[in-house]
Amino acid sequence: MPKSLMIDPREVRVQGQVEFTPIPINTYNRTMADELAAGAFTRDDLFRIWRDMAIIRAFEMMLQTVKMQGNYEGLEYNHRGPAHLSIGQEAAAVGQCYLLGVDDHIYGSHRSHGEILAKGLSAIHRLDEESLLRIMRGYFDGATLRVVEEGAAGDTRDLATDFLLYGTLAEIFGREPGFNKGLGGSMHAFFPPFGVYPNNAIVGGSADIAVGAALYKKVNHKPGIVIANIGDSASACGPTWEALCFATMDQYKTLWDAEHRGGLPFIMNFVNNFYGMGGQPVGETMGMRVLARVGAGLTPNQMHSERVDGYNPLAVIDAIRRKREILERGDGPVMLDTLTYRFSGHSPSDASSYREKSEIELWQEIDPLKTFAQQMLEHAVCTQEDLDRAQARINELILRAYRRSIDLSVSPRANLMPAGNLLERVMFSNERVESMDPGREPEVLLPLAENPRVQQLAKRSRSGLGDDGQPLPKSRCIGLRDALFEAIIDRFYTDPTLVAYGEENRDWGGAFAVYRGLTEALPYHRLFNTPIAEGAIVGTAVGYALEGGRVIAELMYCDFMGRAGDEIFNQMAKWQSMSGGLLRMPLVLRVSVGSKYGAQHSQDWTSLVAHIPGLKVVFPATPYDAKGLMYSALLGTDPVVFFESQRIYDMPELFHPGGVPEGRYEIPLGEPDVKREGRDLTILSIGATLYRALEAAQELDEKWGISCEIIDARSIVPFDYEKVIESVKKTRKIVLTSDACERGSALQTIAARITELAFDELDAPPVVVGARNWITPADEVEEAFFPFPSDMLDAIHTHILPLDGYRPLRDCSVPEMMRRARLGV
Fold first, then answer.
1. Which residues are the active-site residues?
2. pLDDT of amino acid 1
3. Are strands 715-717 and 616-618 parallel, antiparallel or unpaired?
4. Pairing label, strands 708-712, 673-676
5. Dihedrals φ, ψ of 343, to 5°?
6. Which residues contact 34 (CB under 8 A, 6 or more apart)?
7. 90 φ, ψ to 5°?
8. In Å, how far from its chain's centre is CA 26?
9. Residues 6 or more apart from 348 whose CB is under 8 A from it?
10. Cα-Cα-Cα-Cα dihedral sign, residues 600, 604, 610, 614
């Protein structure tokens, strides 16, 4: 929303029409003879193209045989996992990767074995032997290399080819020496040193992640381009469209500074095999007929969209060469519609009943492995004997990789039974990193001390209490939003990779003013507004973090997490562990929890994300905690969902002596904090209910002489129970409260665990006081929905400790709880 972009009615209301330019379709028309005559390829180049396709074909045929027959070359193996094969699609993969270097990164789909091998074989050809050895020896301390070194023959490139095939297959078979320690498997295997980045089992899942990867390269001046390889049916997925909108934002070319101006170095490549499982996008499930036309709806240059014949590897190489030139001059992104065809079913269990056998046979007649080999023979590139020898060598390579991968003595599976096992260790990286790009100076617009908001906050009280112990006006104090700002802006001045984006982040200062003051401090490429595309906001942040950057993504309301469900639950949460601990995810997702905006803007969904393994979840309720936890989140390397309550953005610090410290400090994630000591009853709160719990505690003390110990959870995942159990041992009773709906809440999990850990210490069962299991009603009647002090008193009186003379405001007896449960409310 920059004021520099004037919306002039005299311009936008002018009569006219939108014009489109023709979209090229299969325009490559040179022959192998033409290319040889022009010197574009040597005979060795052409033979290598065929060899790489043949390796992929042999690899996939081996997997198909294993899945369908339970053996390969007489060696039995029961592969219980998936295998989505790309038999028939080899030319598209090899053609794409032919010109790519290791700085060019590809992200793929569930059907990406061929892309892994094509990119890996291209890297092996391009890298020198010293680099190859360094990569193999350094990858997971040489665990994969040690297996293939045994009995190795040939040169370093031969060894690297063995390494590539074995590492990929061992991963598919779930073996610990695999490229991702067996934790990724067939649909998620990848190998970053060769530029092969995560492949994704969620259809279209790589689209926004790859855009984020390209954003990282753009922002941080890193070399190379990024390609997202997703299926044609993925064009119907919401995240794919959101990714395209994010990738084509005008601001890259209009608002970013001169050094960063220009489109993203990104190709959205639709691997168009004409099927989405059994559905046909052309003629049945979609309406664009020619997928390449989608680009015309996104940018005036139509994303330089083009349909390419993916059954001719030379056509694909030509397209990648031309599109790369576009990206390098800053006019990206680019869309490609690469035609191909899979001979096999969606998976080995798919009998292809949705297509005629004659259709498959038509494509098999023009199988690139046969047609390309025939052309090489016709143009004296090689002899039939050369092809036969190469095929025999390939068969030996595949059989050797297979033998090693199924042998448990050399390729064991990780033992996930004992405490401290591999998967337990890699769920979080738990590192602390000051700068993701050390030695590089952060790009800022003015010194931190000259920032107007920093100067304004310097005049405020750090505490919410005066010298006399009485509350100060909130307007004179550092509030929770101010404390968050102090941590965030300081990290922008220390980590050059840090970026922040979301809706209304720049100029407005964020919907709730946390970012007010950042616009003056940061150039556009470090703080910018995005489309209203929550999936892409989170998905691109995942890609940015996977590539090595640090990012703060913001969702304006907690309720909008539903629009980014896959990106939060399947992407942000899982890539550290699915990589076998190879990748880090320094991503903080800020989420505000509303209160007065009704059913779709006032929900506390902390329990949803707390349920998903791989996410850290925090919810501070005081300025001191907010600043310290934000520092820890922005110094860590794990994904953190950082909840903030809109109710208390202006709340000053009332607990920590001296208020909010001016400088940096960190509060470890997972440690609850005692806000008020007591002896008779423990109240554990999450988020803004802290202050209502204090009101209830005050009333209990004044009217009944009950001393309450108030504990603020601060974090939900991780969570250290020690302080809570110590308190329960003292008080022997506990109430748990938050604004999340009571059913299935994190509070219920914590209550159950307390019962397990301290059953003998309890005089009464833990009692949960959450929001009602309703939609959130209007603000005027929200007292009936959210937990207020009276609800806590009702629960204490009914279930824990009868209060003399007290009459519950609302029935919360066992019969009433049973009635609500029967009704589902």
1. 601
2. 66
3. antiparallel
4. antiparallel
5. -75, -35
6. none
7. -65, -40
8. 35
9. 64, 67, 68, 83, 85
10. positive
Element at 741 (helix H, strand E) = strand 734-741
> Tens of pLDDT along 295-318?
999 999 999 999 999 999 999 999
Among 305, 281, 110, residue whose Cα is nearest residue 205: 110
CA-to-CA dists, residue 657 to 186, 369, 651, 726, angstroms: 54, 74, 16, 23
Structure tokens at 488: 């965030």
- Residue identified by tokens 């720049």 is 506
**Is residue 544 within 8 Å of 215, Cβ to Cβ?**
yes
What is d(CA 782, CA 779) in angstroms, rounded to the nearest whole number?
5
Nearest-CA neighbor of 634 among 531, 727, 538, 550? Answer: 550
- Residue 325 CB contacts under 8 Å (≥ 6 apart), including other chains: none
Listing from the earlier edge strand, what are the strands of the sheet with 226-231? 196-199, 105-108, 226-231, 266-272, 334-339, 306-309
Q: Report d(CA 166, CA 402) in Å as an integer.
A: 7
E-strand stretches of 15-111: 71-72, 75-76, 105-108
The answer, yes or no, to whether the previous bond of 333 is cis (omega within 30 of 0) is yes
Helix (H, G, I), strand (E, B) or coil at 155: coil
Q: What is the mean pLDDT of residues 589-600?
A: 90
Q: What is the pTM of this model?
A: 0.97
Tell me: the pLDDT tens digits for 97-133? 999 999 999 999 999 999 999 999 999 999 999 999 9
Give the C-alpha separation, 242 to 168, whole Å: 31
Token pair recorded at residue 547: 């590539």
Residues 6+ apart with CB under 8 A from 237: 203, 204, 207
pLDDT-based confidence at residue 272 (cuts at 50, 70, 90): very high
Neighbours of 678 (CB within 10 A): 20
The answer to whether residue 213 scores a pLDDT higher than 90 is yes
Look at the alpha carbons of 459, 462, 468, 469 in this order and tell me if their dihedral is positive or negative.
Answer: positive
Rounded Cα distance between 713 and 625, Å, is: 11
Residue 13 buriedness (CB in 10 A; 0-12 / 13-18 / 19+): exposed
Q: What residue has token string 């180049």?
A: 45
Taking the mean position of all CA atoms in its chain, how far away is CA 387? 43
**424 has pLDDT over 70:** yes
How does strand 767-771 pair with strand 734-741?
parallel
Q: 781-799: string of b/e by CB count within 10 Å (b at 16+)?
A: ebeebbbbbbbbbbbbbbb
Question: CA–CA separation, 720 vs 205, rounded Å?
Answer: 34
Residue 819 makes CB contacts below 8 A (sequence gap 6+) with none
Strand partners, 652: 479
Give the pLDDT of residue 348: 84
Question: What is the C-alpha separation between 483 and 493, in angstroms, rounded?
Answer: 16
For the chain, give the mean pLDDT: 96
Q: Strands (DSSP E) along 167-274, which ranges? A: 196-199, 226-231, 266-272
The CA radius of gyration of the chain, in Å to the nearest whole number, is 30
Distances (CA, A) of 14 to 193, 250, 300, 634: 53, 21, 18, 48
Of the candidates 801, 604, 813, 612, which has an alpha carbon nearest to the alpha carbon of residue 713?
A: 604
CA 784 centroid distance within chain:
37
Peptide bond into 177 cis (omega under 30): no
CA 274 – CA 204 distance, rounded (Å): 15
Q: How far is Cα 582 from Cα 566, in angstroms, rounded to an integer?
A: 22
Q: Of 382, 794, 461, 416, give the one whose Cα is nearest residue 652.
A: 461
Question: String of b and e for 37-54 (b: at least 16 CB within 10 Å)?
Answer: eeebbeeeebbbbbbbbb
* Antiparallel, parallel or unpaired: β 266-272 and 226-231: parallel
